[in-house]
Predict the structure of Prepilin-type N-terminal cleavage/methylation domain-containing protein.
Amino acid sequence: MAQPDASATTRLRTDDGFTLVEVIVALALMSLVASAALYFFLSGTRTITHQQRTQNAVVVANDAMEAAYGVVAQPVDDVSGLLVGRSEAAVTAGWSTGTTLGVEGMAATYPAWDPAGTGQGTLPVSQERSLNGVDYQVLTLVGHCYRPISNTAAACSTVPGNLTDPATVPAGYAQMLRVMVHVSWDSVQSPCGDTACSYQVASLVDPNSDLEWNNTTRPIAVDDVAVVEVGQAVTVDVVRNDVIGFVVTNPVRNVTVTGGTGTATLQADGQVRFQAPTNASGIMTFTYMLKDAAGRESNTATVRVSVMPRAVDDTATTNRATPVTIPVTTNDQGTPASVQIITQPAFGRATPSGTGVVFDPQGGVGSPWFEYQFTDTSGLVSTTARVRLTVTTYANPIALDLTVGIAATQAGSTAPIDWVTLTGNPSGYQIEVMSSDITQGKLKINGNDYNATTNRRGTQLAYAQQGNVPGYWTVQYRVWTPDGSVSSEIKTMRIILVPTPANDSVNVTSGTTNNSINVGSNDAPNNFGGTVQFRPTSTSTLASNCGTLPTTQPDLNNGIFRYNAPTLPNGTNSRTCTFTYVIQGTGQYTNLVSTPATVTIRVGR
């Protein structure tokens, strides 16, 4: 039986693993390494956190200083804008806090405040600011210091021998303002020692009026534009794009309408409310200026307001073959200059005509519509409006029995016969002459002689008289629709050529008899021995002191009256007398009687 190898057994035990002592030592070493790593990690974290908070403090301090830069430093009512509202109590408390905190620059600065101040001021003495979850205490101290005029490189400090701020600026010195901003915050793991962490920044500001502080500029008003519909209002934030520094009140001034008829009203918040007119559109303008807390005024800016025109819907009615002119812009709001058709009707045609539209149905019947816009005198385009149309078939034509009187003339003339008005038919209807018994003069259709075969129908009718004759004639006629589809019944038109005398005036001598007064020379007709004759009217009797018309009148056929003049009494130089007469037809024209004519006789010596 073989025996085990002792050396082999010993080798196997050596390779079995770490001993307990070795394990304990290894764990101890690992613990030391981990503790060291944790220490370095926590230390690094604290360092990073402190750096972040310090960087935030720089931002807070710079913001506070920028707020100071945004204030006009020049005095208004002897108080710098940096001090406005700061009470003595608030400044004294802030100065005491600054002394405790060790704010640099205080020893070379006199505290300053607003005698009328009641609190922290426009630029707060102290305030709290949170940034990225950290609370920062911000102390902003502002005070006076003095620099020798002869040495601008000298430090700005207190005046030797003056423990308090001089009431007046000492000779040879220039008064400056020192702004000191101190920011503090609670430390984390005491990186700042036993006190809170802090950061501070300071700057000198020259408030003197002979210099412009380059951190603020004179206000700059920038032009604006706005759009509003006619009759409506728009509020314009005119300051939005302007450049202006510190202000304590509404900076907008001198709002004036310079173009158009709207109104511009300044609001308490600095915006301007522009009310557009209700009866006009176009480009309208108003101007304004700015004024900052230092009293400096800006340039004049112009606000250009486009007052948009508004088109209003319309209606119209016509028949299928009668074009109609529609004054579409009459009820629109704006200042129309031209019209544009946006959508044509389903039938017919809409055509702009000036500021109106002509619609031609072109034979269609129904309820079409079209849409339009108009352009105003400044080039602005209105909203779109719709015109609703009612297109009917033709109304039945009307014919009536008519009597048409035409005044006779000596030489003859053409008189239009307004048959459309007399019958009540619409424009565009046509008259057709069926027959005529006219033997003197001519009937005219559309300006040409009536002819039963070739010219008997048209829209215009007239009678051309022969001249110097009375008469009456009968015409048979009927009326057609414009398209000739429907006619009326036949009716009679009686044309009467009425005798027409003219007034006369003559002079005769007192006491003379058998005076010839030729009144017929200007009458029509004047063939007094033929178709017409004179006839004194029932009102023709002369006054008792105006002489007489002899019973026998031998020259009436020649248009002459005989007249016996009265004898004027002593002291009377003239007398005016009158009588009237008519012309009456003879034979078949006996019933043709003119209106009366007046003869005026002036009897003189």
The longest helix spans residues 20-69. Residues 316-391 form a domain with the Immunoglobulin-like fold (CATH 2.60.40). The longest strand covers residues 134-148.
